[in-house]
């Protein structure tokens, strides 16, 4: 490894990144597969993925940053703890994907990327330009992360590192400076394992390495803005924001270790699995107070309560009837409709 690359990686580790790769600013080798996935409509209502300008940027990173030469891909672990089964399996609690238990990762990671970019700028006399992204740019991060040696893309479409599993965020710095690139790293892959495909509650994987987002609980609870299809609701269990099932059952996940990054550790248990009674009685003000600065803030109160209604219906818990009945008068039509469904499941399901 060159001295320059080593200095960049040392600084990345100092900033808290768990892994980092430096690769040429070239299109993803799986770009055509991604475009085929779009043509099949598996992106659901995430129309921004199919926009012509974003596709053009993925096909040529110079569309994002003229003169782009290097792509620095960084990983930031977020695994903090494993919840006991008496919490996760409690139907009176709503489960939240563990990446969203505390601070918004976009804010935490982008700040670190900006610091790393400043460090890289200081290593050269060139007037370099850069763009830093965390899950927002028109860049196929997992594919580029694989090329950079951060892991391999598993059958559940997640980037998996054989030494730490898949519970890490990805971010990147696209820059005009010509950096020394990493050589490809041999990775083990999934082999014959199909745990993730078999465990998915909604059968969202029609084939290995292909996710039909329209059936994914993460999509249904976060990306879908309208009514959740009735046939999907009973399959969602008590997940109210995201889903971790395909990662939890992955054998590589046993190597994940708890992070020191305090921003990702839940401040209290209800951050990870709040009681449904609390969620069903959330006001707009309560929602802002509790979730400001977290990933959950992006979906708004109505969609979170919508999701809680589905979990309540799946619980069949009669003690939630009072909360749901009150929601029949909610200002949100989305909430009213899902509350009515949940009451029907409790009374007649």
Mean pLDDT: 95
Number of strands: 8
**Morphology call:** elongated
Strand content: 5-15%
Question: Pairing-aware structural class of the strands and helices?
Answer: alpha+beta
| Side-by-side strand order of the widest sheet | 1-2-7-4
The helix count comes to 14
Please state the CA-atom Rg, rounded to the nearest Å: 21 Å
Distance between the termini: 62 Å
Low-confidence stretches: none
Order of helices and strands: HEHHEHEHEHEEEHHEHHHHHH
- Describe the main β-sheet briefly: 4 strands, antiparallel
Question: Approximately how much helix is present in the residues?
Answer: 25-40%
Map the helices and strands.
Elements: H1 3-15, E1 19-24, H2 31-39, H3 52-59, E2 70-77, H4 85-88, E3 95-96, H5 105-121, E4 130-133, H6 141-147, E5 152-153, E6 159-160, E7 168-175, H7 195-199, H8 217-223, E8 239-241, H9 245-248, H10 276-280, H11 284-291, H12 300-315, H13 321-327, H14 333-348
Helix pairs in contact: 1-5, 12-14, 13-14
Describe the overall structure.
The chain is α+β, with helices and mostly antiparallel strands and 349 residues long. Helices cover 36% and strands 10% of the residues. It has 14 helices and eight strands. The strands form three sheets. It has a four-stranded antiparallel β-sheet, with helices on both faces. α1 runs antiparallel to α5 and α13 runs antiparallel to α14. It is elongated, with a radius of gyration of 21 Å. The protein starts with a helix and ends with a helix. 44% of the residues are buried. The mean pLDDT is 95.
